[in-house]
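Changelog note: in this version the structure field was regenerated for every chain. One regenerated record is shown below for reference.
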Amino acid sequence: MAETHHAKVLILGSGPAGLTAAIYAARAGLEPMLVQGIEPGGQMTITTDVENYPGFADAIQGPWLMEQMQGQAENVGTRMITDTITSVDLSHRPFTAIGDGGDTYKGDTLIIATGATAQFLGLESEEKFKGFGVSACATCDGFFFREKEVAVVGGGNTAVEEALYLTHHASKVTLIHRRDKLRAEKILQDRLFANPKIKVVWDTVVEEVIGDTSPPGVTGIKVMNKKSGDESKMNLDGLFIAIGHTPNTEIFIGQLDVAADGYLETQPDSTRTNIEGVFAAGDVQDRIFRQAVTAAGTGCMAALEAEKYLAEQESMPQAAE
């Protein structure tokens, strides 16, 4: 039987942003309720070694980090809900979210931390080696490919930026693009073509990721030239997919301000959206950095802003009935 749940702070999403927001809100005595979503823990659960999250001298595992964050959030008073939100009504307070099982979740404030989903090529072999040589984040994983050969797939700003970044670690970087020209800004293209470590392969698509399973790791890829139809193999140690991210904002379209690229709009130096009492944190509103530590930072901001908003609402004189 469907139930209705209510909290002062309702949080959607259980990645670093959502869990950090929960920790701060709980410590403020706001008894937050967090709905985990379709992928509890977010993108960090498909990350293996993490070396760039502050506080750990040695590499840690992404899933372990998220388990620790969740445990911390629960220990300080967060109510965890296993459900996936299918629709929201932000037209009035309390804000309402409906789960796919029919349960209703209401919040006097709402923190949206639903994240973004990296776009992949859709290959079965690619899925097999995610976290074991296949990555969608050079900043996160480039360090593990020191003096190794890697490839980047894509032709936009992100792909070129990832390729340039990887030259600080890898011995050779190959940029693979399905067309005969890049979409990236000219200044980025100039830097790319001037870098002796980077080779560009045009009109080419990846057909298969090749690797060893014990221990698991990428050893190469099969590619095809779209114009000639010729197939070939490239030996490499890592494959970075940079064809874009899709922010998980579909259920908010028409109610919140959403940019042309799908990210939620927030006010400068804030997590506030265009609706008072609704805040957005993490990759759902961050198209630039997309790091666990920056997501956690905005989660903290959202909780503090929600706390301030609630305090202001409580201090306002109530209208006479």
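Spot check on this record: The mean pLDDT is 94. The chain has seven helices and 19 strands.
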